[in-house]
């Protein structure tokens, strides 16, 4: 590659990045549709193997997705809302129980000398209700502001209908678009780019579909385990812990915190607390040795510390969307990093050896 070609490529990347930055709000529904089409494409390909035309296969996938969303809205979401409301309604009762049993127990066991009489459950409960009322008022005001803003409302409704439409067309013509992109690649670089694209596809596909399966499976395991031990609100606590488990160890930490508080307020018994901890320990063992190896595998190759950093960096740079896209982007990035590392190992820089008897950074000693 000549210097002129490198300059043109660099300038093209700068202009493309600038255009993406300017057209960010317009590109959002297209990016969401492309991601949804990418996730659903393997299912459409499987239906095509049964000699179903691709357009009808896409329609079947849309109908199946609509059915699942309907079940989710009609069954799971109301159950979660009901349990969360029940959880919040018990706050005054838990505060009274804490004043009557927990604080005296802490005084007796650890000698903390806490002033039990100074804790007023009614005042704390009033503060909690006022806090949630202010949140509800803020949400209502924000919704009213959006509703009064005709342009924002129209844009939101347009995206709501545009995403399914774009997803349908992208999914129907996905193979054609991929073939045209491949045909437009420079012939000398086409094999390398195709190989990297296949590796990225394997990593992204395994991660997205596998991680979603792990999150749902963990939510079911936690919910069933907490229901068996007799904890209140097992579905809400279990599903919340499962859904945030895409961050390493965050699911078990959030679940233990919520379940531990609920267990202490429900029954101040050591064995009951131990049984709740056992549920999350079993879930963590199943996730580490069964669910993640079987459903996700070692496709990403990212250390847990690097995963946490990627999520925090994505959130800092792009907000909530960055949190969601951090790990998929990290999965594709690791493919490129491994490719660069393989090239480095075969390069002259790595193969260059120091003169015999001399090691960089050390002084050779003459034999005595």
Care to describe what's here?
The protein is mainly alpha-helical. The chain has two domains: 27-184, no CATH class; 191-346. Helices cover 82% and strands 0% of the residues. α2 crosses α3 and α8 packs antiparallel against α11 (270-296).
Measured by DSSP, the beta-strand proportion falls in under 5%
**Count of domain modules:** 2
The overall pLDDT, averaged over residues, is 74
Q: What does the overall shape look like?
A: globular
Report helical residue fraction.
Answer: over 70%
Query: Which structural class best describes the helix and strand composition?
Result: mainly alpha
Which value, in Å, is the CA radius of gyration? 28 Å
Largest sheet: none
The ordered H/E elements are HHHHHHHHHHHHH
| Distance linking N and C termini | 54 Å
Question: How is the secondary structure organized here?
Answer:
Blueprint: H1 3-22, H2 24-48, H3 54-89, H4 91-110, H5 121-148, H6 150-172, H7 174-183, H8 190-229, H9 234-243, H10 250-266, H11 270-296, H12 304-345, H13 348-351
Helix pairs in contact: 2-3, 2-6, 3-9, 4-5, 4-10, 8-9, 8-11, 8-12, 9-10, 10-11
